[in-house]
Amino acid sequence: MKCVSSWYLEAIRRLKSEGRTFVRTLHLLFTSDEEVGSKPSEVFSQSKAFRDLNVVFGLDEGIANPGEQMRVFYGERSIWWIKVTFKGQPGHGSQFIENTAAKKLQYVFNKFMDLRDSEEKRFKANPEQGLGNCTTVNMTIIEGGVQPNVIPAVISAIFDMRIPPTEDFVALKKKIQKWCQEAGEDVSIEMLVDGNSTEIISLTDENPWWVAFHSACKAVNVELQTEIFPAGTDSRHFRKAGADMIGFSPMNNTPILLHDHNEFLNEKVFLRGIDIYSEIIPALANLEE
User: Fold this and answer.
1) Which UniProt keywords are listed (predicted)?
2) Could you tell me the end-to-end alpha-carbon distance of the chain, in angstroms, rounded to an integer?
């Protein structure tokens, strides 16, 4: 998120110009491919170079909020990108062919959509719980066929799932495997991304990092709304490596326009963000456990 990187740099530039020094070392990390799995961050989080930094706490991006509160994320949903391949009997499009790939796709697709519908109803019944506490399912890619009048022998579909850390991952995966078995023979699953983000940080007075962050926000009149992050960030890799990570973007009174046309941030919101980070960064960097 470009605005978050800019906030960090502007706040640190201000603090440096004021001659401020801190007990702890600050590290800024700029990586690529966050939208397609964050492989660089995953590799770095597992490296000796990262361990040698002795990182115990970090900040990452959050999400805008149309309301007055600012959203802060203490964990995030796991990403599953599931490719299901269906093989069946090919033939001419004018026939009633048995055991086709399309019929098997239909069965599995309906099962995924039933799960989607039930989770959507659960979310709409209590939107205050946040999207991060529900499982979302969407079919994002479908491939197959060679020409309009030929029933394909192979069809594949990719499903994007985002799963909260409270979910039973093993049971959910078994359920999906069962759907594929029920659809018929020659149905296979490939996990393109198989996330397992169960780590969350404590938001109690027992966690000094949370106390420092929360107190700094309170000092600049920031009202927080705590949630599980609904999508995926690099935070999941560093939480798994042992660091407490908070996702935070001081973007209140801002519509949520992720990847939309005309995504924008009001000038006043951006400038206030510099003030907020100028309070948060010293509070964290001077924390002595």
Assistant:
1) Cytoplasm, Hydrolase, Metal-binding, Zinc
2) 30
